[in-house]
């Protein structure tokens, strides 16, 4: 059976130290001002019993990823382990995938113009290691492993702690007591996003790209004409 990687985030354990964010940034050389993983702070409860909770998020490595569906050059793909990656040699930086991602997990690297995101530290997986956010977590709030192996530690953890899956993705959360599930990332609703792209965004983008191409052709012709006139003079 092939491997399918996934992650459980236990909200009862996260202390909001942000070590995962910093370690990820250092390990992957993430551009300044952007993050591959974030830890959000949310309020929950009713006054006066209001408290704060930390909610780590990352790319959820969707099973039928909208980002992959909308990419016009097939730069986004599922690699071994069902990990969603971006091929930097194919990416044209159009931003369709950024707009299509329902979790805000993608960004464009200002240094390269290429889209970046969490890769589960794919280079570490190839070396038999876990993602750096997992190994760095001091409270062991992140659990990583093979979802296709029923006896893997991650599946045992899911069963024992009744972890909830973000439907359509490879991410699970264990809720803190009294936490409303509505604070978690929403279940994937792919069809609406894909239809929006196919019927509105993509045609508009093609029209704009066509206009830009026409402008380039006209500009080139005008410059050539001017050059010819100068030669005649």
From TrEMBL:
It holds the Pfam family Fer4_11. Its cofactor is [4Fe-4S] cluster. PROSITE patterns: 4FE4S_FER_1, 4FE4S_FER_2. Residues 5-34, 49-81, 82-111 form the 4Fe-4S ferredoxin-type domain. SUPFAM superfamilies: 4Fe-4S ferredoxins (SSF54862). GO terms for molecular function: 4 iron, 4 sulfur cluster binding; electron transfer activity; metal ion binding. It comes from the Bacteria. Keywords: 4Fe-4S, Electron transport, Iron, Iron-sulfur, Metal-binding, Transport. This is Tetrathionate reductase subunit B. It comes from Neomoorella glycerini. The lineage of its organism: Bacteria, Bacillati, Bacillota, Clostridia, Neomoorellales.
